[in-house]
Structures are given as structure tokens and as C-alpha cells.
Amino acid sequence: MPKFTWHTSAVPEGLPVRQVYGFLFVPDGRLLIRLDGNKHSLPGGRPEPGEAEYVDILRRETMEEVTVDIGEPHYLGYQCVDDGISPYAQVRMAALITTVHPSEPDPDSGRIYRRLLVHPGKAGDLLAWGETGYQQATAAADAAVNVFDLPCSGLPETGYL
């Protein structure tokens, strides 16, 4: 069984990055969760050949999966996945949503994902990623307040974007 650990430092040289996901916020402070059926996740995905910049990967994936434009992303850290054979990193970033486009099918899967807006404090439960998921969600909520100057209380109810 893989071991997951959360790190707020830069990804170490030589540790491959296999995933870049984004905690994306709307101006009222709520977080966008991607829904695929009953599965909650964050927008993001794998680097494509030739892609090395986390920002570029996140921008492409957010447009493909949830059809939103984002402002300048803020690096939160990475989750190290140690499967006992070949460890790798899963990068996490936070960003503000700047433009919402009509939903479109994901070019990779053909599915249209629903876009759920939630209080950031609900992210750990909805994502169900265990302790490291709660650590990531906490880092994202901190960035929402301290980097993006978003409200942390009095947020509207959950809704769809």
C-alpha cells in the first residue's frame, strides 16, 4: 500500500511530478470541487509530453475539465506518493477563478463534470484523501485568506457554478 506524505517545500530534484491539481476559489471564498458522478475531486491532471511548468499544466487542465480561467496560481506544496518502487510527486496549487465558461466535454474523457462550490472547510471531507488531504485543504484555505485576501467566514451555501 502506498505511503502518502504532505510537503510544503519545493519538489526535490529527480522526483517526478505525475499530477498537478488546483484548489480553485471564486471571489466570495468558496472552493470549486469537480464532480464526476458521485466522486469529488479537484481539477487537474498529468503533465503532457513537453510540459514542465506547473502553472501551464494547471491552466490547461482547468480549462479542459471545468472550463474556467484562473489567475496566477500559488504553489502550496506536493504530496509524495511512495509505492515502495518508484516514488513520485503530486503538486497542489491554489488560484482564483477569473472567468467561468459554459461547461464543455473534457477532451480526454468526453465527460462533462459538474462544478460544485463549497466552503473550503468541507474540502477535506469531500475529497476523502485522508490526513494528507486535510493538510492540503488547510494549506489551500490559508492561501485563500492570506494570499488571495478572500473572506473566511459568512460564506454562501454550497451551490453549483
- Radius of gyration, Cα only, in angstroms? 15 Å
Rounded mean pLDDT is 94
| Range of helix content | 10-25%
Largest sheet: 10 strands, mixed
- Strand tally: 10
Helix tally equals 3
Order of helices and strands: EEEEEHEEEEHHE
Strand content: 35-45%
Q: What structural class do the secondary elements suggest?
A: alpha+beta
Shape: globular
Query: Low-confidence parts, pLDDT < 50 over ≥5 residues?
Result: none
Distance between the termini: 36 Å
Describe this protein's structure.
With 161 residues, this protein is an alpha+beta fold. The chain is 22% helix and 35% strand. It contains 3 helices and 10 strands. It has helices at 54-66, 123-127, 130-146, and strands at 3-7, 17-25, 31-36, 39-41, 44-45, 68-70, 74-82, 88-100, 114-118, 159-160. Strands 1, 2, 3, 4, 5, 6, 7, 8, 9 and 10 form a 10-stranded mixed beta sheet that branches. Strand 7 (74-82) and strand 8 (88-100) form a beta hairpin. It is globular, with a radius of gyration of 15 Å. 36% of the residues are buried.
